[in-house]
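We include the entry.

. . .
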Amino acid sequence: MESINTFRLLCTTGTVAGAMIMIALERKYPYSKTQRFFREGFFNDFFWYTLVQSFVLGLAISFLAEWVDTQTGWSRFTFIREQHLMTQLAFFLITHDFYIYWFHRLQHHSKTLWRIHEAHHSVRDVDWLAGMRSHSLEILINQSIEFLPILLLGSPEIAVLKGTVDALWGMYIHSNIDVHSGKLQYLINGPEMHRWHHADEEEAYNQNFSTKIAIWDWIFKTTYFPKGKKASRYGLSEVDFPKNYFHQQAFAFRKFEDDVVSESPVETDS
């Protein structure tokens, strides 16, 4: 128990250090030079989404994992847990990233699922913190599918390590850093492509669904990466998205006939 607590402390320290580095790089090498640090919605995203929501949903998923294990006994299967820590991490990273590409893509093509993904696209100033704004139902679905297998089949350290990688990568791909990664962009996703995914521009809708591994977009032909051009407008200009956290949560359940934005980013229902 003491070793895992030390591991958690190291990963938490690494996450905070990573955030500080990205903030410094945003100031030094900004993608959008006019973007402010304390932009609209900063407190909402930092306090409610990053601190409160993450903590509450983390507890909910841990209780869910205990319940699933009592019903299935999955934790008795030790094959994955017996592998090297880095092998386990690679396995869970790749399998979950493949899943999240397709679920993310489905969210953009389903009016129902778009409702719980809409909050993530509502940020008008995309930065290191923007990735934390996601509807609680979206997080509960994705993190349950992600962490239940890890908690039940993997080593205890893997959930902590995978969570750290997720947090750092999420901050990176949304960061306001003017990155030029060259051919590496064909393999590794970063702000060069992902900021286009958040662009409030018609040609960029329903493109660049990858999170960590960019290759999914290239393979399945969902890449939008115009050379020599930068995204300049973000958010959801065709809908009056609420600014309050609780109103943002409730907004997903409004009547569909009141929805005016789905015609642009969402092509069809599933």
Remarks:
- Residues 28 and 171 are 16 Å apart (CA to CA).
- The mean pLDDT is 92.
- The first helix runs from residue 2 to 28.
